[in-house]
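Example for tutorial group B:
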């Protein structure tokens, strides 16, 4: 690409999102930029695509590209400076479980890369709302629970989440999850135990 092409493409994408074009026009244009060889251009295009597209498969594809790109430190910095995390966070509690799952995978990756301190507090509430929703299912998805526990463990190290846990009455079901997970999911059990200790709650004794 020519010098300055990344900046020009980003400006074009951003301006298109606020122009009088139809949503389908913007989405189509953003899709084309998603395959750009320039990572910053891809980041801008994915942000716009998430804001304008309702196609679950296209969104999952874009989020997977984003997940791969965020392995790069410079892209992670740009991602947070753009507050792009505020754009993808609502997907965690949306109607599409596949979208929620891939978004949680992005959160897990960011946390494992040591970026948890960059997460806005709005993420805390969304993750715990998702946890509350998951507990209401007859058969909670253990894979989803595992991802949330990894993120919560990391977030608990940078700020206290006890008040939100108490507000949402999540400690009792979390304690029950600890007891159950000990029988069939050691990784989840250890993660839940870590979260319970981090928020100053009792870890029930095993029978």
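The residue assignment follows.
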């Amino acid at each position: 690409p020519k010098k300055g092409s990344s900046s020009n493409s980003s400006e074009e994408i951003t301006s298109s999102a606020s122009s009088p074009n139809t949503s389908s026009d913007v989405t189509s244009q953003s899709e084309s930029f998603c395959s750009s060889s320039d990572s910053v251009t891809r980041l801008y295009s994915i942000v716009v695509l998430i804001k304008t597209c309702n196609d679950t498969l296209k969104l999952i594809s874009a989020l997977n590209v984003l997940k791969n790109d965020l392995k790069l430190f410079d892209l992670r910095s740009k991602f947070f400076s753009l507050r792009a995390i505020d754009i993808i966070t609502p997907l965690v509690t949306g109607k599409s479980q596949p979208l929620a799952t891939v978004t949680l995978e992005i959160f897990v990756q960011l946390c494992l890369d040591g970026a948890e301190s960059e997460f806005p507090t709005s993420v805390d509430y969304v993750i715990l709302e998702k946890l509350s929703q998951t507990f209401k299912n007859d058969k909670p998805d253990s894979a989803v629970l595992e991802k949330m526990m990894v993120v919560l463990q990391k977030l608990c190290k940078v700020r206290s989440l006890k008040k939100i846990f108490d507000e949402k009455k999540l400690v009792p079901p979390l304690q029950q999850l600890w007891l159950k997970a000990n029988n069939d999911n050691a990784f989840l059990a250890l993660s839940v135990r870590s979260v319970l200790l981090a928020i100053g709650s009792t870890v029930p004794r095993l029978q």
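DSSP finds twelve helices and no strands in the chain. Compare this with the pattern of hydrophobic and polar residues in the output above.
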